[in-house]
Design a protein that fits this description.
The protein has a two-stranded antiparallel sheet with strand order 1-2. Helix 2 runs antiparallel to helix 7 and helix 4 (60-96) packs antiparallel against helix 7 (148-198). It has two domains: 1-26 and 200-222, no CATH class; 27-199, no CATH class. The protein has helices spanning 2-17, 31-40, 44-49, 60-96, 106-111, 118-129, 148-198; strands at 201-207, 215-221. By secondary structure, the protein is mostly helical. The chain is built from seven helices and two strands, in the order H-H-H-H-H-H-H-E-E.
Length: 222
C-alpha cells in the first residue's frame, strides 16, 4: 500500500513539473531559424542563438564584419572603376581628339591606348592581317596622341579600370564563402548548445523497498 502511494506521488510530481521520469532537454532556439538568418545575413544566426545579446555574440560579429567589408569593397571598387573609365575617356578626348560621344566597341578603346594614331594602327594591321581589322579614317574613328606619355597614362587608366572591375566581381565569391562559413558555424554552435542542454535536467530515482520502505529521489543533473 505504501509503495502504491509513492508511485502515485511520482506521477503527480511528474505532472506538476511537466516532466517525465527521465532526462529532459529544455526548449530552446530553432536550428532552422538560425540557419536562415545566417543565410540572409551572416552573423545574425549566431546573435539569435545568443538570445540577441551582443555581449554573447562571439564569432558571429566577425562574420557580420566581413559581410559589411565585402559589400563595401564591392560597391566602392565598382564605382571607382566607373569614375576611372570616364576620366580615361575624357583624357583621350582632350589629348587625342577621340570622339567619345559616338558609340564604339570596347576593342577600340583598347587599341587607342596601344597605337599613337589611327594611321599607325591601320598600317600595322595591313601588314599583319590585311584589311580585316582596319578602321575607316573618319572623324568618328580618329585619334592622334599629342604625347606618348599621354597615351601611356591613358592605357594605364584603362587597365586599372578593368582591374578594379574584376576586384568588384571577386567580392561575390568572398560573400558566398562568408555565408557558407556562417551557416556551418551556426550549425555547430547549435549542436554544442543542445549537447550542453541535454546534460542538464531532472531525474527520478526509485529504490525498491529492501527494508520495507521504498525511497524516491529527485535529482538535478548538470
Amino acid at each position: 500500500m505504501r509503495l502504491r502511494y509513492l508511485l502515485c506521488a511520482v506521477v503527480m510530481l511528474s505532472y506538476s513539473f511537466g516532466i517525465q521520469a527521465q532526462e529532459q532537454t529544455p526548449s530552446g532556439p530553432s536550428k532552422k531559424k538560425a540557419i536562415i538568418l545566417s543565410l540572409l545575413a551572416p552573423g545574425t544566426g549566431e546573435l539569435y542563438l545568443s538570445d540577441w545579446k551582443f555581449e554573447r555574440w562571439g564569432s558571429g560579429k566577425y562574420f557580420a564584419t566581413a559581410e559589411v567589408l565585402f559589400w563595401a569593397t564591392h560597391f566602392y571598387t565598382r564605382a571607382y572603376s566607373g569614375w576611372l573609365k570616364e576620366d580615361a575617356r575624357a583624357l583621350a578626348a582632350r589629348k587625342a581628339g577621340v570622339d567619345i560621344r559616338s558609340p564604339k566597341p570596347a576593342k577600340y578603346y583598347v587599341n587607342i591606348g596601344k597605337y599613337r594614331d589611327i594611321y599607325t594602327y591601320n598600317e600595322t594591321q595591313r601588314r599583319a592581317t590585311g584589311t580585316d581589322f582596319l578602321y575607316d579614317e573618319t572623324d568618328a574613328n580618329y585619334w592622334q596622341w599629342q604625347k606618348d606619355s599621354d597615351r601611356r597614362k591613358y592605357d594605364k587608366m584603362r587597365a586599372d579600370t578593368k582591374r578594379f572591375r574584376q576586384v568588384s566581381t571577386y567580392m561575390y565569391f568572398g560573400l558566398f564563402v562568408n555565408h557558407v562559413m556562417s551557416i556551418v558555424h551556426v550549425t555547430r554552435q547549435y549542436k554544442r548548445m543542445t549537447t550542453a542542454q541535454s546534460t542538464t535536467g531532472w531525474r527520478f530515482y526509485i529504490e525498491p523497498p529492501s527494508t520495507g520502505t521504498a525511497r524516491i529521489q529527485l535529482v538535478k543533473t548538470f
